[in-house]
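Handout, section 3.2

Students often ask what a structure token actually looks like in practice. Rather than define it abstractly, here is a full record for Short-chain dehydrogenase. The first block is the sequence as you would receive it.
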Amino acid sequence: MNLFDLTNKTAIVTGACGLIGRQHCAALAAAGANVVVADINQAAADAVAAGLPGGPHLPLAVDVTKPESLAAARDQIIKQFGHIDVLVNNAAINDMFENPALAADLSKFENFPLATFQKVLEVNVTGVFLAAQIFGTPMAVQGSGSIINVASTYGIVGPDQSIYRNEAGEQTFYKSPSYPMTKGAVVNFTRYLAAYWGPQGVRVNTLSPGGVENSQDAFFVKQYSAKTPLGRMAAATDYQGAVVFLASEASAYMTGANLVVDGGWTAI
């Protein structure tokens, strides 16, 4: 079990206060890491950090689309801990529409708003690039580190739009083009960075989770679960083991890979 030990490691989680981000933080802290809880919301980051075991942990307000925000965070992290060992690139936008009455129409590819697409692209792709560049460079200099880019099953396969139809056969929503497109980019960016930084001892892998149950409509949960060999959506805690594995020496000979944890969704 020492292979999974992260004692004295500094682990950064971006988007740390989201549904899965909080669980990444909890898992890394439980494995012994000092966790940097990086989120755009400082108050939320403070609350998450306060609830983690071990420590010390560092809550930081970080905007992954702003190089100056990331650079300031990097300097503060190195000042406090002296090194950066793990980066979980988790911050992302899964685009939604505020008005449910308009969601089905606006989420269609033919009508999808350019401004929404550009916002998702900025966070999901540019944000991953910038965080890897600014937090990963010190890893390359020190000759070790692990970067975990969080993608999605929709970065591997196309969305099944039928699961968004309600019992009356009405299309309540279309999974939009921006999320699958950006998550597919994350998968291949992992391969690029693994090849580039491999000689410097920095491992870079993708974690591709499946859908997490989180108060969705009952018809959607039923239809998603029916397409999944394990017969259910994920719980938010289902990715804790995977993130510790990728962060630790347990995956020491693994880089450029895509670890798919989806209940079998992409297997059929």
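Discussion prompt for tutorial groups: Helices lie at 19-30, 42-50, 67-81, 100-106, 114-142, 178-197, 218-226, 240-247. How would you have guessed this from the sequence alone?
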